[in-house]
Amino acid sequence: MNRILLAAVLTVVTSAAAAEPVIVPTSGSADETVGHLKAAVEAHGGRVFGVIDFGATVRGAGTDIGEVQLVIFGDPLIGAQLLSADRMAALDLPGKILVYDTGPDAAMAYERPEEMLAEWDIPPDAPVWEAMSRTLESITSAATR
After folding, report:
1. What are the pLDDT digits (tens) for 127-137?
2. Which domains does the chain have, with CATH numbers?
């Protein structure tokens, strides 16, 4: 019985660990990419709530991890659909895209919506999944210029 339980736990942990973020390379610096990303979010009707500059914060503590910035944003129409399905989804909102140096350029990373919100009671066939995916693809594509 213990082996069956251990196997079940390992399967769940392995599945959760297997979720890979979507990585989108850019042809500019992290700062440039953050600027383009913020403009793209706003151009698509979203709102940028803030940018957390992890790189600057860590440099202030005496360590350098390069440029690492987290852009926090939301789209009220998408948020309304998610929260109508399950208000607890607010615990994983708003959306986030990580921007980081990769050498001479930068990259963006984000979680797939169905993985980010997997624990909430949102029907798998809900149109909001497609809307979120299209929006993330669109804004990251626009920010790669």
Report:
1. 999 999 999 99
2. 20-142 (3.30.310.70)
